[in-house]
Amino acid sequence: MAWARAQAIPNGHHHGVALMRTTIVLAEDHELVRESIASLLREVPNFEVVGQCANGRQLLALVESVRPDVAVVDVSMPELNGIEAARQLREISPRTRVIALSAYTDEAYIRDMIDAGVVAYIIKSGAAKDLIQAIRTASRGRVYFSREIMDEANQIGAYGRAIGESAVRPL
Known about the structure:
The protein has 171 residues and is α/β, with parallel strands linked by helices. It has helices at residues 31-42, 56-66, 82-92, 107-116, 128-139, 150-155, 158-162; strands at residues 10-14, 17-20, 22-27, 47-53, 70-74, 97-102, 120-123, 144-145. It has a 6-stranded parallel sheet, with helices on both faces. A two-stranded antiparallel ribbon has the order 1-2. α3 packs parallel to α4. It is globular, with a radius of gyration of 15 Å. Mean pLDDT is 82; it is low at 1-18 and 165-171.
């Protein structure tokens, strides 16, 4: 499969404003979950899934190749977990916004992913609309956390950490 160069491309107009396409890569080791997410995202206007992979090492190579706007990364993957992959992605493609996708809601995972550079943390048991909103929010340079982890995110100052500030803004 040939991968297209990922970039923001004008994709129609909405109320006179040009809409930009958001390019996305998915990293999830469970094929059924990954394919389901890809299928969901393909139905969202202006979202383009430009690549998929099953582990952290594949993710690094894919991001280096296609330079997507957003990478949706499972926290727990073989070969290179999502935490370490997110850290390395910042070096490979600094403008790619990383979204953590996780079954874990405990503070340690959230803190580790935020410290690794993610700008959104989505719980797998959440609604599909949460992932869609997280991608839209992250692609605009903003931070997003699932409702299920708001208390934990507030306790560790996740908003400020995710945007590199010492002062925490309310979620």
